[in-house]
Amino acid sequence: MRMPLRVLSGLSVSLMSFSFVGCAKEPTPAPPPAKSPAPESQEAPASTSSNEKPSVPKGDTAAAEVILGSPELTAGIPGEGPLTSDQIQAWLEKPDNHVPLEIVLPLGLMAGTSQVQGIADNLMTRAKIELGRQLYFDKRLSADNTISCASCHDPDEGFARHTQFGVGINGQMGGRNSPISYNRIVSGAQFWDGRAGSLEAQAVGPIANPIEMGNTHEKAVETVAAIPGYEMQFRVIFGDDGVTIDNIGRAIATFERAVVTGPAPFDFYEGVRPFLAMKPADLEALKDDDAEAYAKYQAAKAASDAHPMSESAVRGRDLFFSEKVGCTACHVGANLADEKYHNLGVGMAAEKPDLGRFEISKDEKDKGAFKTPTIRNVALSAPYMHDGSQKTLEEVVEHYAKGGTANQWLSTKIKKIDLTPEDKTALVDFMKACTGEFPKIERGRLPE
Ligand code: HEC
Ligand code: HEC
């Protein structure tokens, strides 16, 4: 049976082939002898080609504007119980589901619109997001049907996992903590060491990683292609190529891009903060002089009152952004992450430390450096750091207060900070106030 729709045909995107494997770091060979001392600059260069406007390509059909995070994008194909081929076909026959989405980010993350990555090469459509959603939750991608992406990036555990290390097929563990998998749309290179250049490249790795999903790409493709509901979706969405490992990666990456988190009390507070800085008399005057600005103030205040930051969290916010404490030297921008690599000394006291970014760049200054994680929703995804060695946010703050763990590659931005117990609590309270709303995501409803 031929499907009537071939909306995205003619779009040829060549995906690179992927040489690295998986989410978990491969067992690394002994590090090569140290190279000659590296350039003076302390920090790695930006890993991403950000700053391009999110050029939303226009297909044959007019693009449809949609706020990412809207529940209907990730809520699954309408219906109850097992997902039938008839339901999938009806879904695929709706032209709306193939219209390239012109995406708008939610309040907060919206400030990162210029950082949006990857959607020009891999158009976002409702149908592709939905296909990626199914694959993300489908354990049949693993060798023994036990592990899905969600096993280590679980919506119930902050899209990460509360274990120290990722736990894959047959209970195997790598040496790194499962990071979060949301807000990836504003992020370029993936993994703690940035070894995947894109989400598409990242997504196919775990399937064939022996300690994660333990499968081969060939077998995964065969399994998926043998499920009629999947076969139909791939053929309609990707054209004659149908089910390929690259297309699996593109679908999963598209779903991940749709998983963005909504405004947190922090964002609502940022909205009202400029007004709070005004003198009461000036604010009163605004009422008469600039009705529009005053209305904006009232709306911002109402939103912030409905999602309040505690006094301590406000204090913590000011510390976080202050020169003295300097968290924003790295946790900066809409996603509170600079997408660069830094050495905080985590794990560096070990006899054979994980050298992180260095393994990829072979640049001396990258030894022990890892990619800055987001602070958004961080309260939900303990334990912390690339090796999951810090169990609580309090422990993380102590690590910064003592100036990290000394080692010869420690970032120059990490210094001992004088913090009172009250300051420390405030920083933790601020981070908790960075928890926003998650989109509603259907976890079942996979093709039979
Ligand atoms: C066995 C556990 C496990 C499974 C299964 C797994 N991951 Fe991961 N994931 C990890 C770990 C651990 C890392 C970090 C590895 C590293 O940085 O070396 C990671 C990293 C990532 C990242 C990078 C995030 C960032 O901030 O750079 C993304 C995105 C991701 N995984 C998505 C996926 C997807 C999609 C799947 C399914 C195809 C998947 N993962 C399956 C454990 C897992
Ligand atoms: C020099 C850059 C830099 C500065 C300054 C910095 N961070 Fe970090 N932060 C990082 C990096 C890099 C990591 C991951 C390090 C690792 O795993 O080895 C990290 C990890 C974290 C984590 C763990 C997140 C997770 O998902 O595991 C938290 C929480 C955190 N930082 C909060 C803070 C706070 C609070 C401050 C200010 C007191 C701060 N950071 C200052 C770069 C920085």
How is this structure best summarized?
With 448 residues, the protein is an all-alpha fold.
Task: Kindly describe this structure.
- By secondary structure, the chain is an all-alpha fold.
- It has helices at 71-74, 85-92, 126-136, 149-152, 199-208, 217-225, 228-238, 245-258, 265-276, 280-289, 291-306, 311-321, 358-361, 393-401, 421-432, and strands spanning 64-67, 101-104, 341-342, 370-371.
- The protein has three domains: 64-258, Cytochrome Bc1 Complex, Chain D, domain 2 (Orthogonal Bundle); 265-306, no CATH class; 307-432, Orthogonal Bundle (Cytochrome Bc1 Complex, Chain D, domain 2), CATH 1.10.760.
- The protein contains 15 helices and four strands.
- Strands 1-2 form a two-stranded parallel sheet. A two-stranded antiparallel ribbon has the order 3-4.
- The relative contact order is 0.17.
- Residues 1-21 and 26-60 have low confidence and may be disordered.
CATH class of the largest domain: Mainly Alpha
CATH architecture of the largest domain: Orthogonal Bundle
Number of helices: 15
CATH-level-4 superfamily name of the largest domain = Cytochrome c-like domain
- Number of strand segments: 4
Indicate the mean pLDDT.
Answer: 87
